[in-house]
Amino acid sequence: MSDTDTDAKVAAYFERPGHRHAVEQGIVDGKLPLKFAYAGSAAHTHDRLARHEGYQAVTGAAANVRETFRSAGLDEVPAIVEIGPGNGLNSMTILRRLGDAKRPPRMLLGLDFSETLLGMAEANFRRELGEVSFTGHVWDVEAEPTAAVDSWRPPETPVPVLLLGNTIGNFEQPSAALGHVRRSMRMGDTLVIGATLRRDGINARSMTEPYRNATFTEAALEPLHACGVSPADVCFTVDYIDDEVVGFAVLRRGLNILGHELPPGHRVRCFVSHRFTPDHIHSIVRAAGLVVGVSRIDEAANHIVVTAAKENSAEGCTS
């Protein structure tokens, strides 16, 4: 796939040994880890999704991030870390917003589960924002801390660590994931979290409308297709349940996977995106051992940005 060909369908593949089995086990269990919707061939469907107007409306809010940087005193940050930069397009939007800072960032470390997406981000940075040096490193934030930040960072310089696009709403255990982030930071670093707020009084159809399109369906189902599940054998439904947008793959006919006979109607949760209240976000941050700093809400966009810092330095990363 060329740097500019975003419409071509690539052959299904997984990135690393064990990924296929993990997806197959998720199908059997009825709960697919969402990170596999962003890796391997699914990275290419996600790349198309990230360019979709409806997706950008849910995950954007660059102006709110910029104003939070200003409020938090982060106007002189030569380097930035971002967890989950995707294809890098939103990252570049943020960096362009920061172009008016006293000392705009010129280095970015992208940490992502998908080496394919990191490759896309690097190519996009090289083509569209060459003045910023992009470095990619594979990391599963839900599994463990990482030493990559310490290995990359400029000497004696605190860095902002971005977790934007409501990525926190995709985690199975948000506080545990933030705990891994905390253990990967130094004292003086600032975690910057962007999340989508719950909208009271809105019906499920309105909440799920941005997800009701062929591009999103293809992206959500790609891990199943990579396991050999035919598009004709599965349908996709999306609903809003208990403050979560939830997508299910539903088998149209029985399938045998890992020796398990799965009947028609078997449901696999293949997408989840939580919506938060400000108090909920703050409680998750505190449960991870972090101290809440600036909290800035954009009511029109239903978006919140929260900064957080470590309480003490009596720990380090373990990987």
From TrEMBL:
One Pfam family this sequence matches: Methyltransf_33
The record, for SUPFAM superfamilies, names: S-adenosyl-L-methionine-dependent methyltransferases (SSF53335)
Using the record's annotation, list all stretches that form the Histidine-specific methyltransferase SAM-dependent domain. 76-200
Per the record, the domain of life is Bacteria
Q: Indicate what this protein is called per its UniProt record.
A: Histidine-specific methyltransferase SAM-dependent domain-containing protein
Q: Which organism is it from?
A: Paractinoplanes rishiriensis
